Fold this sequence. Notes:
Layout: E1 2-8, H1 10-14, H2 18-27, E2 31-38, H3 42-48, H4 58-66, E3 70-77, H5 80-88, H6 101-105, E4 114-116, H7 120-130
Antiparallel strand pairs: 1-3, 1-4, 2-3
Uridine-5'-diphosphate binds next to loops.
Main location: cytoplasm
Domain Nucleoside diphosphate kinase-like: 1-136
Keywords: ATP-binding, Cytoplasm, Kinase, Magnesium, Metal-binding, Nucleotide metabolism, Nucleotide-binding, Phosphoprotein, Transferase
Amino acid sequence: MERTLSIIKPDGVERNLIGQIVSKFEENGLNIAAMKKVRLSKHQAEAFYAVHKERPFFGELVDFMTRSPVVVMCLKGEGAVAKNREIMGATNPEEAADGTIRKLFAKSIGENTVHGSDALETAKEEVAFFFAESEIY
Ligand code: UDP
């Protein structure tokens, strides 16, 4: 059993897509082990995306992620990290495979509807960034 972090980004929450996105995870055998809606502070968004701080899109990414609430989830299942990435699709929605969340819903490479941890080690850090162990079922 693996755990991974998923975020429904502001563009997804703003367009009332929470239910459809959560369904995709459940239909594909992932279990929602923890879930909450939060409005990220600038400080939190900068810390969460610290790995990208030298990238040209960093400021825009922080503005986007803080403009309205997000839904954060801990997903659980066999091979959850890779499975979540598969369900999400490629970063750029134009390159995302048919049926993936980003292909279905994302507007651009920046506003791409969902975040998902990219590796098991990152997943551990990212889940702990948002959830106490006692909140994960
Ligand atoms: N991003 C962006 N412009 C880019 C590349 C990435 O705005 O050219 C944003 C986008 O929201 C992406 C996030 O930065 O999801 C993190 O980028 P990463 O390459 O880690 O993609 P992901 O793991 O989210 O697919």
